[in-house]
Amino acid sequence: MKKKGLFIAINAVIAIVVAVAYLYMFFRWSNGGNFSSAGLMTLKYFTVLSNLLEGAASLLCVIFYIRGAIPKWLAVLKYASAVSVGLTFFTVMLFLGPVFGYPGMFMGANLAFHLIIPVLSMVEYVLNSDYRVPHLVDSLISVVPMILYGIFYVANILINGVGEGPNTNDWYGFAFMGFPASYLVFVLILAATWLMSYIFLRLKKKLNK
User: What is the C-alpha separation between 37 and 26, in angstroms, rounded?
Assistant: First the structure.
């Protein structure tokens, strides 16, 4: 019961922090740092979408925990959301931070979206034995959010062009070596996403033995 109460608390904290951070960004109540917009334009960022997905999954976990247990479909959703915010975290730490500077990556709402929620979510997912151990098929399902976002990102550039300055459609800078390079970047990110998903799978299997 103590373990269940702990995971309910962690999921509740995740859901609340995501909601508060998003409101701050949506209404621009604070300086959001790099990659920050206001209103519905916030939804163009994978960072925001992945955190909202994690927040929704965490809220559902709280509800189902109170009702009894976590169903299989929610365990898969939690898996996908943890992988998605994990991708956000590692992209910031390994690519965006070095290119654009870390201070702007962790300013305002981005402190929650780029660091607090991803780390908390990944640790909670891997350590929570109440989520069933994922299968290889689950690891493929977990990359669907990235696939859908990648299609949106590339299609937006194809239709509207790269653009320049604050009006650029390449807000993550993935086409900095030319638009064709963005295809390669997308494939690399997709491969990295699945690799991280597979590592999560192996960790949960090992911890559940």
Answer: 7
Q: Are 117 and 51 contacting, i.e. CB atoms less than 8 angstroms apart?
A: yes
Count other Cβ atoms within 10 Å, centred on residue 64.
Answer: 16
Alpha-carbon distance of 89 to 51, in angstroms, equals 11
CA–CA distance, 126 with 110 (Å, rounded to integer): 23
Q: How far apart are CA 205 and CA 170, in angstroms?
A: 38
Determine the Cα angle at 44 with ends 84 and 77, to 5°: 30
Q: Which residue has the tokens 């916030």?
A: 42
Q: Are 18 and 49 in contact (CB under 8 A)?
A: no
Block residue for tokens 């640790």 = 123
pLDDT digits (tens, 9 = 90+) for 115-170: 999 999 999 999 998 898 899 999 999 999 999 998 888 888 888 887 776 677 87
By the 8 A CB rule, do 125 and 83 touch? no
